[in-house]
Amino acid sequence: MSAMLKLICHARPGRKRAREPARMEMVCLLRDFDAAAASGGPLSEESGVFWVDLREPALAEAQRLFPRLGYTSAIDLPLVTRGAALRHTRRVRWRKRNYELHRLYEEREDDYRSQAPDRSEFLFVDADGTTRLIRGYRGNDRPGSRRGLSVCDARLLVNLVSPPGGQGRLIDPFAGAGGIVRHALAAGFETYSSDVDPALSPGLTHLGSEHRVADARELPFPTEFFDAIATEPPYDHAQGSAATRSVAELARVLKPGGRTSMLCATWQAREVLPAAEELGLRILLCSPIDRKGLACTVIVWEKPVRPPRTTYPQIDLIR
Ligand SMILES: C[S@@+](CC[C@H](N)C(=O)[O-])C[C@H]1O[C@@H](n2cnc3c(N)ncnc32)[C@H](O)[C@@H]1O
Known about the structure:
about 30% strand, single chain
């Protein structure tokens, strides 16, 4: 039996209160390694700390995935110690034992900043029909056209729907300036996008996604085509219930066993949740996130796998 390691995970500044989504992101990203959320561990007095258990043989593979994390910016490994502390090694006491903390992962600030929407370039068709390469494109003030999801939120939404094997077809049906698309591509997904605004088409295609101009309520894709969906619909009330009315279509194009993550305004979540429940989607996560004073909610659903069909004709049972 291999040893179980307890990872001490630190949620990023600005998302310290979002420990539940952070923990689920980590468990989903490490899905192939049977990582499990743990209820306690060292450093519980620090804000934004949570724990994930992982079997020792999986550590090296898991470490390769840590730079993809959105809501976790550092990870420590506590190891029991009896001797004197090494220089530069932090020590903690937990359940009457001393531990040395070994830093397994720390996000590189410059890497993270270089991926931010204000540093990224995007091909956009402007009002006179000219296609321009714009740095820091964030949309405009028209209803529904504020774009440019932050790096940590885009990574979170992609990681939350990571299928077994970590790959497959993923779509963002409200793709905007491609925040989610960039991270899905970087994570190795076969990435699709759609958005109702045709001005975004060159940019989303240029990023490398298979793009369609389409309304999320009527997607031009076959039933059960996608392994995963990650999205952020428009938040403003002027868009009405675009998010709610898209849920049936998202459920149609998702494979059984596939997952959908959605970051929406909390007022939208109140409408979207009952609609999804009626469609038989299973809620795995529903958690508030404060995005600079904007009340948001992150939701993850799973589409249940259908019961297996009988392989013999019913008539044989009747005879
Ligand atoms: C909040 S933005 C998405 C931002 C994106 N996550 C990003 O990182 O840039 C919402 C997008 O939904 C699009 N949209 C609005 N209504 C839509 C609909 N009914 N179907 C598809 N896209 C829609 C808008 O054009 C906008 O680009």
